[in-house]
Amino acid sequence: MTRPVIEVEHLYFAYEDVPVLEDVSLTVCEGEFVALIGPNGAGKTTLLKILLGLLPARRGKVRVFGRPPEDLGPLRHRIGYVPQLSHFDPHFPITLGEFVLTGRYGLIGVGKRPGRSDWEAVEKALEAVHLLHLKDRLFGELSGGERQRALIARALSVHPKLLLCDEPTTAVDPKNHESFYELLLRLKREGVTILVISHDVGVIAQYADSIACLNRTIFCHRRPEEVISGEMLEALYGKEAAFFHHGDIPHIVVRREKNEGGLGAL
Amino acid sequence: MSVFGLAFMQRAVLAGCIVGALCALVGVFVVLKRLSFMGAGISHAAFGGVVLGYVLGIHPVVSSFVFCLLVSLGIATLAKHRRLKEDTLVGIVFASTMALGAFLIGVVKIRNVDLFGYLFGNILAITREDLLLALVLGGVLLFFLFLFYKEFVVITLDPEGGKASGISVEAFSYLLVALVASVVVLATRVVGIVLASALLVLPAATALQRTRTIPQAMLLALLDGVAIAMGGLFLAYFLDAPAGATIVLLGTGVFLGVFISSSSPRRG
To answer: Would you give the end-to-end CA distance of chain B in angstroms?
Structure first.
């Protein structure tokens, strides 16, 4: 068996007194592509932030590349992180190329200037997401989907061994989802370990090696076809969720409270 | 005798240009990181610092410098608490430090203090020591801005991502706040406590209307900062108007002109 890149055992986390994660255990091995799904507020982003060392675990064991996340040393630069797009000021005065370069700032080191190899890495990353031709365009002049691909390029610019993505396709229009997941598969073949938070259960099930279902705790982590069977999704999203199957692909629809009105697709 | 022949005018123009330039450079990060209100709060804290200096027998520029530094780092530290927001803290400190100054003036019966000069600026009061302080602080500031430019960009653009990639975001945030406090105290010497934050915000906000990248914005803000400081001083001299107010009004006029003539205003 390949060695584990992410090991989480009996993890607990709370914001002040509000428990967010309880007894979470998850192992992701080298070269694996794991999708993390769950309803809003399930703790998915929190788990990612703990893996990145941005939040401290209250209890339990967390290891990334075999080390605690807050003490990764240079291994930290082998992690590519794709945060949610909503997190960014779209009018920040920076070109796409410079934006992608910021991904390498930690790797370059404090007080040092980016060199030619850094720019080469930026261009390669932009090429991978098909944005190289927009390198000198301002971040604010890009479409939502292009900005999201810019975030992915920024994560790729460090040649990551581990890629952590938080809803990386929300602004990418559906016809480009496929090329994004194809890119992930290509990275996986190169040995990159991938953990992706997604609401896109149907699409991601076709690409991921396994799906982990999180709602405060991980209550299943199995092969996609076992997860999307129906009962598992119902257990995750609650009885209020209904699943429309188009072929083998389930689409989640959650019945909301009456005053919110009707059916809202996730 | 020409304007340049006047010793106070020479010092005022020199100080105005140096301080205008430094404020403009730091101001770009202040505007982008939304620290404008913090800048205004820090400058008002200088009033408490000046009065404390008189009470304790310390040079008022030194006391206000130390006081503003402590206040700004205090705000930055407390703002990390989940239940306190930075603008709330600034709102409190803004008033309480001014109150401290007013209270001490009343209780200790300080006399012979040019209050109006401290509040609205008095270019006749700019000394050689002020100039020296501006030069030394200016050198330190340029050194930090040059050396840590990319770190300042990251803590402004994406502090969380920066932290995830191993950059000491907290340390650089403190450093940025300390730099803001330093230039604001310098600005209080030129345009006064009440108007100081304008030197920080106006040139940067003006430049950001018209520039695409941060280095361009810094260059344009610097030019604007120097131009309004010099232009304002000469206008004030010929109109026999208060210098601080003239500089700030000139800066506001330039900002409005650029804002209105920009086809797609981006930020302010």
So the answer is: 42
Nearest to A256 by CA among A233, A244, A238: A238
Average pLDDT over residues B3-24: 89
Q: Do the Cβ atoms of B110 and B54 come closer than 8 Å? A: yes
Domain membership of residue B235 (yes or no) is yes
Q: For residue B268, tell me if it sits in a domain.
A: no
Among A20, A87, A79, smallest CA distance to A55 is for A20
Which amino acid type is present at position A121? A
- Rounded to two decimals, what is the model's pTM? 0.88
What are the chain B neighbours of A46 within 8 Å (beta carbons)? Answer: none
Instruction: Indicate which of A94, A99, A112, A154 best probes the interface with B, i.e. most B CBs within 10 Å of its own CB.
Output: A94
Please give the average pLDDT of every successive group of 10 residues along chain A, which has 266 residues.
88 90 93 90 92 93 94 92 88 95 94 94 95 94 90 95 92 78 90 90 84 85 72 66 52 46 39
Chain A CB contacts of B29 below 8 Å:
none
CB-CB under 8 Å, B151 with A105:
yes
Q: Is A94 on the interface with B (CB under 8 A)?
A: yes
**What are the tens digits of pLDDT across the range B157-195?**
999 999 998 899 999 999 999 999 999 999 998 899 999
Spell out which residues of chain A touch residue B153, defining contact as CB-CB under 8 Å.
94, 102, 105
Domains of chain A, each with CATH number or no CATH:
4-265 (3.40.50.300)
